[in-house]
Amino acid sequence: MNRYRSHPMAFCWLSIAIFCLFPPPFSQAESPQEKLKPIQKWVTDSSASFIDIYRWFHANPELSFHEKETANRLAQLLKDAGYEVTTGIGGHGLVAILRNGAGPTVMFRTDLDALPVTEATELVYASQKKVTLEDGTPTGVMHACGHDIHMTNVVGTAQFMASHKDLWHGTLMIIGQPAEEKGEGAKAMLADKLFERFPQPDFALALHVDPTLPTGTIGYRAGYAMANVDSVDIVVKGKGGHGAYPHMTVDPIVQAAQLVMDLQTIVSREIAPSEPSVVTVGAIHGGTKHNVIGDSCHLQLTVRSYGEEVRQKLLDAIKRKANATAESFRAEMPDITVKEGTPSLFNDKSLTNSTVEILNEVLGDENVVPVDPSMGGEDFSRYGLAGVPIFMFRLGSVDAKRLARFEQLGQQPPSLHSPLYYPDAEDCLTTGVTASAAALLNLFETNSDNR
């Protein structure tokens, strides 16, 4: 070291040589702003093409497990971008793979299906599609839950990643999943050996539009973000007869009415206030005529929770309350059917935090906001239960001025599943593709063996 003190230029040249041979990591060599410029420029140049893709998906919706043309269109767009595409997984599900050397495998998922909702937006590209459901009911079909945005966002992000392979190394795995609205699509793809036929990802990302957040913003939640969704059918049993002689009957409607009220004490008196949960009786069917007491009454419940322990407490309490009500009426025990549906969605905390950090750099701290957990359901959760760290973030979808107008009128904006819901697509997609591409690049970079 003494010779470098006496020859400062020699030390300078040695430092330069070391820098050239061993440059600092990508994240240190460039500022975040410099790193993200390629994304922002590409999205700006490509945003017009997103709208054409979005409008096709919006105008051509298909119901759960019937997404044939939707899947074909998505598959072709991904093939055109250079991906290896396999279709027909778990129904109309698809997997698109882009390999780019050694590195992690990262999954990015979109859902494909639409809803049996007749669109009332009056958009020029509004869905005109009509179908007849299995029970014979005619209905319109609409992307009222934003899956058209989700698919377009995945296409835009996939195109960027394919055209900028110099920025990352690893394997990108795009999932087009059917039947999210029924909570069955992820289950079907996993049952079709998704993670045996294809690499099990190291991480998985997804987004979902949010009708309450303005365009340009991202919402996030670490930990539990969406709920367990279970359905319970209860058929209470009575003894029918004339409405003028109720003492000669066992009235199932009065029994059902008491049960509805008893069920409301489960959350308020048996579950800790710190544990969010819901028991809702969504439908009740019984009786045929004013003066006839029937033999039975059918109740349909939706039950929401987060943790498995609370979930089981709720279901056990519902059965106990139903049986106790029947006993108090000296009625036959009810028929109780529980259908355990979509499991709760738990965003991996480490993955969430690292992704939020890069999103703050892309969009600014003020545009990346924490959001409350939702009692809605999402079967993206099943990939987490299969052992993959997952993170689903929310994408603001309604222009701030439009949201302000709703507030001025004292109205809530149309919710998801409303026939009046529509996103402000261009701004929504600009933010979505920018955020998604940045999140993927960050995961490939921070988890690469070459970093």
Automatic annotation (TrEMBL):
GO terms for molecular function: metal ion binding; N-acetyldiaminopimelate deacetylase activity. Transmembrane segments: none annotated. SUPFAM superfamilies: Bacterial exopeptidase dimerisation domain (SSF55031), Zn-dependent exopeptidases (SSF53187). InterPro entries: Amidohydrolase (IPR017439), Bact_exopeptidase_dim_dom (IPR036264), Peptidase_M20 (IPR002933), Peptidase_M20_dimer (IPR011650). Residues 228-327 form the Peptidase M20 dimerisation domain. Its cofactor is Mn(2+). Mn(2+) binds at residues 145, 147, 181, 208, 417. This is Amidohydrolase. It comes from Bremerella cremea.
